[in-house]
């Protein structure tokens, strides 16, 4: 009987949980027996039992209403509504989390970019301060070993660093070489730096390497008097001006 009752409930779902008597047979039981392909006796026993239990209610038009089926449908409807609301809340939470995550990522990226920019500005300021310190050293070295350095001469020496990319230490080395060779003139220093620039010698390491090679080459040359210059005389060649 339970199986038939369940089938009756399923049958009633299409008509708002009511099994309507259509009048094709003498009573509803005969119609239901044909629809479910069961015996009329089984239908009769099932309806009698579940009507007594209050789970089937037959009205004056011989229609059978199944309250439990309606309750189950309503429960399913409530459950579906709950699940829809639950899924909606889950989607909203996910969207909010994604938005928050994107905002945090943007904030972190922005903060990182700002920090990078500040670090770059700091490095540039340090580089400028370092150059200014070197320029002060250049001026002091020139005036202590060569003589008075006027503004035009200073700018010309400075351009080897700022325009040509030469290390400030290289300018200092040129001043030292000029003084050591007793060539205390601005033209001589400028000539050294111009030759180095033309030869692509812009770093102190490159200067040291050039002097090292010169010394090695000197060792392999004959030591005849008047044919070999001293190491310092490598800068005594005619200057390009």
UniProtKB/TrEMBL annotation:
Coiled-coil annotated spans: 72-134
InterPro entries registered for this protein in UniProt: DnaB/C_C (IPR006343), DnaD (IPR053162), DnaD-like_sf (IPR034829), Phage_rep_org__N (IPR010056)
Keyword Coiled coil in annotation: yes
Annotated Phage replisome organiser N-terminal domain residues: 1-93
Residue ranges of domain DnaB/C C-terminal in the record: 142-210
Keywords recorded for this protein, A-Z: Coiled coil
Superkingdom of origin organism: Bacteria
Gene3D superfamilies: DnaD domain-like (1.10.10.630)
Similarity field: Belongs to the DnaB/DnaD family.
Name by which UniProt lists this protein: DnaD domain protein
Species of the source: Streptococcus oralis
């Amino acid at each position: 009987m339970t199986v038939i009752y369940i089938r009756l409930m399923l049958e009633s779902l299409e008509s708002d949980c009511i099994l309507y008597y259509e009048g094709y047979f003498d009573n509803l039981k005969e119609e239901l027996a044909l629809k479910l392909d069961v015996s009329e006796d089984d239908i009769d026993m099932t309806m009698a039992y579940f009507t007594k239990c209050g789970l089937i209610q037959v009205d004056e038009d011989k229609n059978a209403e199944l309250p439990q089926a309606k309750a189950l449908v309503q429960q399913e409807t409530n459950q579906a509504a709950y699940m829809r609301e639950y899924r909606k809340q889950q989607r909203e939470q996910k969207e909010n989390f994604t938005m928050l995550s994107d905002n945090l990522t943007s904030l972190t990226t922005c903060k990182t970019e700002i920090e990078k920019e500040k670090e770059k500005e700091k490095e540039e300021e340090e580089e400028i301060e370092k150059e200014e310190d070197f320029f002060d050293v250049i001026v002091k070295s020139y005036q202590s070993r060569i003589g008075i350095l006027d503004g035009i001469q200073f700018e010309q020496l400075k351009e080897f660093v700022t325009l040509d990319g030469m290390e400030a230490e290289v300018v200092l080395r040129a001043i030292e070489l000029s003084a050591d060779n007793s060539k205390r003139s601005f033209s001589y220093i400028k000539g050294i730096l111009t030759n180095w620039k033309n030869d692509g010698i812009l770093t102190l390491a490159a200067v040291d390497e050039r002097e090292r090679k010169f010394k090695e080459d000197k060792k392999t040359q004959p030591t005849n008097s008047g044919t070999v210059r001293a190491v310092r005389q490598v800068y005594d060649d005619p200057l390009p001006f």
